[in-house]
Amino acid sequence: MAGIWLDALDGLARTCREHGRADLLQTVRQKRAQLLDPQLRVLVVGEPKQGKSQLVNAIVNAPVCPVGDARTTVLPTVVRHAEVASAAVVQAASTPGQPAGTAAPATVERTPVPLDQIAAAVAGTLGRRAGGAPAYVEVGLPRALLGGGIVLVDTPGNDEVAALGAGAPVAAFHRADTVLLVTDSTRELSVAELNMLLHITRSHPNVAVVQTKTDLVPDWRTVAERNRQHLAEAGVPAALIPVSSTLRLRAATADDHRLNAESGFPPLIARLQGDLTRKADVLARASVAMIARTVVEQLAAPLRAELDSQEAAEQSGPISRLHAAQREVDELRRCSTRWQNTLADEMTDLLSDIEYDLRDRTRQILRMVDEAFDTADPLVAWDTFQEWLQRSLVDAAQANHEWLAQRCDFVARRVAGNFARYGYDVLPPWSMTVPEDLVDRVPEIERPTIDRFTASQKVFTGMKGSYGGLLMFGLALTLAGMPMINPVSIGAGAIFGGKSIRDESKQLLRRRQATVKTAIQRHVDDFFVRTTRDCRDTARQVQRMLRDHFTALTEELQEAIVQSFRTAKQAADTDAAARDQRQREIRLKMSRLAAVYEQAQQLTAARPAPAPLEPRA
User: Fold this and answer.
1) Is the model's pLDDT at 295 over the cut of 50?
2) pLDDT (tens digit per residue) in 227-253
3) Are 520 and 382 in contact (CB under 8 A)?
4) In what order do the strands lie in the sheet with 77-81?
5) Is 244 in contact with 214 (CB distance < 8 Å)?
6) Closest C-alpha among 473, 470, 471, 461 to residue 498
7) Band of the pLDDT at 166, cuts 50, 70, 90?
8) What number is the average pLDDT over the span 310-315?
9) CA-CA distances (angstroms) from residue 135 to 285, 335, 415?
């Protein structure tokens, strides 16, 4: 009957060895030795003051475990069969952390303890080496129940274990065949107890809840029913057995079978005996199925993690680098189009703005010229005006060239902004400045040819004007009997002559002003054309320089990115081949683990365990 689950357990051990998990292999070997052991280890656990020790005493009908409010349980108590009652403190000599009741004789030290001093031994004050390995108290009793192979292990309370650091009770969970969680009838199951049950049932197929002290609580049946509801809601597959240790011990003293039946212990004893009978078959199958699930989960976890990591590596490894390199190639192609369009558009705008700026500056100069020569005489103000005009044109040219330099620098930065994602300075190593010979490039205006009002011209003009006045007034006075030449006609001729000189002088001034304005207009136009041509030539040189610089930069980046793309493609191909091979290996191992798991689970499916015994309410 043991052959089937032994084969499954040995197959599980081989799987652990193939995966290189020595820790799991040791666990499987320990479970194999435990299941082949004919004894049934019953682990009694629970919170303090719930009646665990009294429960063990009631099961064996002997006060082997100290009870009472004054006692302190530090060491677990192992109660097994012996022909003669005896007690000893057993402490590991060379293997710290070994579970209680499982140490081999060659690795333990046994210190005999008198039967009347068991309480001191359990409290850790007798027979235990200070600072030594975990220890336990072993008590032997000549009892038929124990002689059948049942071994009881009374553990300290959970709070005491945490406070005193006793490692043996915790390790004993892995060696137990049956686990009894003890809770009393004064309250319902606590959250800590339910959590403990959930933890135990994940690694033990045979767990029961013993509800003690039913003799102290009249409505213990209501508490028991609520506890069964809590177990069902929490999904804990554990039977609930209400008992009274006090009634059991009193019935044993009085040999009262009715009182013993009322104590609730017959179903508990029957369950333990049934577990002992079923250990080699039903319990062993369930234990193998459970340990197989635990081992397979631990073996499959790193394989699943490796598969997940490979999927993550596919997103961040050579494949992702290949995709990133491809995106870089595409982005560089788009960047090349963008910077060329940016350079062409910015230079077109620059030329238009520079020409408009120079035109605006020259128009302001011409307006000032018009305003000045509306009143000034070029013959008098020409030298001063010529110096001002030369300075104004030079200032306009300098301002225009400075703005050109600023705009060229702005255009270079705008074009370089398309390469900002590549993370380094891509501006060309140059700095445009105003030409030093700009003053020499602005020609001085030549003095225009203007008419002067000479003395002879004034005499001639005065004579012409006075002749008309003399003749007109002389003829008029002859009608009055006066001679043509008389003082009045002579005075009138003098007035008309002076007026003619003044009028001619004004006309000559206006002609001179018009001539100067026209000459200045032509000069400013020539200045505008020449300066605009210089600015256009400079802008085109800058455009060619920027085009050559960023073209070389694009080619350099393209070469680097293409080389990175080739390297990433080669690495991606190599990595993909290695990853596919490794994934096939992992899937093969996963399928083998699934087969081992299915084989172990079929043990319980082939022969289901009988339902646990339930006491009558």
Assistant:
1) yes
2) 999 999 998 888 999 999 999 999 988
3) no
4) 108-112, 86-92, 135-141, 77-81, 150-154, 40-46, 178-184, 207-212, 239-242
5) yes
6) 461
7) very low
8) 62
9) 31, 76, 81
Q: Does residue 44 have a pLDDT over 80?
A: yes
The answer to whether 209 and 240 have CB atoms below 8 angstroms apart is: yes
Residue with tokens 């060379």: 94
From residue 217, give the alpha-carbon distance in Å to each of 47, 289, 499, 533, 616. 19, 39, 147, 113, 17
CA proximity to 179, closest of 161, 196, 159, 158: 196
> Which tens digits make up the pLDDT trace of 471-527?
666 666 676 666 767 676 677 666 766 666 666 666 676 777 787 788 888 888 888
Phi, psi of 41, rounded to the nearest 5 degrees? -85, 120
Q: Tokens 């009002």: give the residue.
A: 453
**What's the token pair of residue 267?**
């179903």
Two tokens, residue 459: 């005499």
Query: Interhelix angle for 284-316 vs 487-606, to 10°?
Result: 160
What is the C-alpha separation between 510 and 501, in angstroms, rounded? Answer: 14
SS3 of 552-570: HHHHHHHHHHHHHHHHHHH
**Distances, alpha carbon 615 to alpha carbons 56, 211, 252, in Å:** 19, 11, 20
Question: Could you give the CA distance from residue 241 to residue 227 in angstroms, rounded to a whole number?
Answer: 11
Output the average pLDDT for the chain. Answer: 78
User: What's the pLDDT band for 183 if we cut at 50, 70, 90?
Assistant: very high
Q: What is the mean pLDDT of residues 182-198?
A: 91
The per-residue pLDDT for 184 is 92
Q: How far apart are CA 385 and CA 610, in angstroms?
A: 125
Higher pLDDT, 71 or 559: 559
Burial 264-274 (b: 16+ CB within 10 A, else e): bbbbbbebbeb
Residues 6+ apart with CB under 8 A from 13: 25, 28, 29, 32
Least confident of 123-127, 331-335, 463-467: 463-467
**Can you tell me the distance from the alpha carbon of 308 to that of 512, in angstroms, rounded to the nearest whole number?**
96
Read off the pLDDT band of 286 (50, 70, 90): confident
Q: What's the DSSP call for residue 183? A: E
Spatial contact of 42 and 272, defined as CB atoms under 8 Å apart: yes
**Could you report how far apart the first and last alpha carbons of the chain are, in Å?**
36
Classify the C-alpha dihedral 408-410-413-415 as positive or negative.
negative
Contacts of 215 (CB under 8 A, 6+ apart): 244, 246, 247
255: left (phi > 0), else alpha (psi -120 to 50), else beta?
left
- Answer whether 0.70 is exceeded by the pTM: no
Give the burial class of 524: count Cβ atoms within 10 A of its Cβ; 0-12 exposed, 13-18 middle, 19 or more buried: buried
**Which tokens sit at 274?**
């049934």
In whole angstroms, what is the distance from residue 222 CA to residue 186 CA?
A: 11
Helix (H, G, I), strand (E, B) or coil at 59: helix
Q: Determine the 3-state secondary structure of 139 from DSSP.
A: strand
Element (H, E) at 302: helix 284-316
pLDDT at 172: 54
Count, residues in the chain? 617
Nearest-CA neighbor of 83 among 37, 138, 38, 143?
Answer: 143
- Could you identify the residue written with the tokens 């255009």? 411
